[in-house]
Specification:
Largest sheet: none
Distance between the termini: 46 Å
Number of helices: 11
Helix content: over 70%
Shape: globular
Radius of gyration: 26 Å
């Protein structure tokens, strides 16, 4: 039997792959609910491993630093040095979480116990404003009616959807358990990370042709560099923003400085939207305490975010993501819609990896045609 020319075989292969991709997209869109359900079930099964992997990615820079600068200098076997570095990393992580809880819990209790007094103060302010400015009376009447309607709606909704609320509570408990299990898996990820990588690499080369395996290993290396640099940089940036917020709140004598710093610093790991998500509840809380504190806080956050966005973040992250603002927003919205907070955090490096691979393939194709792209 006559063998087909190589170019024709390549065209048939490309056509087959494109056809399979189109069929897959068609099946996904026509059976979207079923696909989402299956993916949710699969993710639920592997949730502890995914949480453990995420925690390992977050702790890897510190573990690597401790191993290089501290435990490697001890007269011990390399395996024991690695174990000591991992254990120290986990202990530091637990200590940080405990410290944050010690800072947060008292302020949460204090804010909860004072909320009625804050609402009463806010009501007095509004009542005084209505007396001083009669034109606000209609607005206040509308706000009161709207609030009553909103409260009634929430009560009705909670009553009608109590089973779903219970299931959501169960889901929250399940997530906490999965994170707890993932924390233990983190130890093994950090301890045997090279061995896991080598095992996966062996499987790839054993099951795929060498060229395809080389490409997949190259893509994995790009993703590893992207995630490592991005997560390390974002966590450091969030820590600096949290510290700056705490110092600013303390100097300006704003209430709940520690709690606000933790909220603002934590949400700052989400590009663009994170500062907004963190600042709104903090601003509302300070407004209930004292409207002038709210104004001061907003001005302070704007200054900190300007310094962070124009000075701190470019120095720390550099061109890790190397994405235009449009694509960063695209990644946040798409992956955030699919996977929530975790997707908003990891969506940027994931999309940056995809973007880098696609750009490399496009450049190779253009150069093969005698074209030399500049960007």
């Amino acid at each position: 039997m006559k063998k087909l020319p190589q170019e024709k075989r390549q065209n048939i292969m490309v056509g087959t792959i494109v056809g399979l991709i189109l069929i897959s997209f068609y099946l996904v869109f026509t059976h979207f609910d079923q696909v989402v359900h299956v993916l949710s079930e699969i993710l639920g099964i592997f949730a502890p491993f995914l949480y453990g992997l995420l925690l390992a990615l977050c702790m890897l820079p510190l573990s690597r630093l401790l191993e290089e600068k501290l435990t490697s200098r001890l007269p011990l076997k390399s395996r024991t040095q690695r174990k000591m570095a991992v254990v120290l990393t986990l202990l530091i992580f637990i200590s940080i979480i405990a410290l944050l809880l010690l800072l947060l819990i008292p302020e949460l209790i204090r804010s909860a116990s004072s909320i009625s007094a804050y609402i009463s103060t806010a009501t007095d302010i509004f009542n005084k404003a209505v007396i001083d400015y009669p034109l606000l009376a209609d607005l206040m009447t509308w706000l009161i009616e709207f609030t009553d309607d909103l409260v009634n709606f929430i009560i009705d909704y909670s009553t009608d959807y109590l089973p779903s609320l219970v299931s959501n509570s169960i889901a929250v408990v399940s997530t906490i358990i999965n994170i707890f299990l993932g924390f233990f898996l983190t130890f093994f990820y950090l301890l045997d990370r090279e061995r896991f990588g080598l095992q996966i690499k062996k499987i790839v080369y054993a099951t795929l042709p060498k060229n395809a395996a080389d490409e997949l290993v190259n893509i994995t290396a790009i993703a590893a560099r992207m995630f490592d640099s991005y997560i390390t940089g974002k966590l450091l940036d969030a820590l600096l923003v949290g510290i700056a917020t705490f110092i600013g709140c303390s100097l300006l004598q704003l209430d709940y400085a520690a709690m606000i710093a933790v909220i603002v610093g934590t949400t700052n790991i989400i590009p663009y939207f994170g500062p907004i998500f963190g600042s709104i509840p903090c601003g509302i809380l300070l407004f209930l305490v004292d409207p002038m504190q709210c104004v001061t806080f907003v001005i302070m956050i704007l200054v900190i975010q300007q310094i962070d966005g124009n000075v701190i973040e470019p120095i720390i992250l550099g061109k890790v993501a190397d994405l235009q603002p449009f694509w960063i927003l695209f990644a946040i919205l798409v992956f955030g819609g699919m996977f929530g907070f975790l997707g908003m955090f990891l969506g940027v490096p994931l999309f940056a990896t995809i973007f880098a691979v696609v750009r490399e393939v496009v450049h190779q194709r253009l150069e093969a045609k005698g074209l030399h792209p500049k960007a």
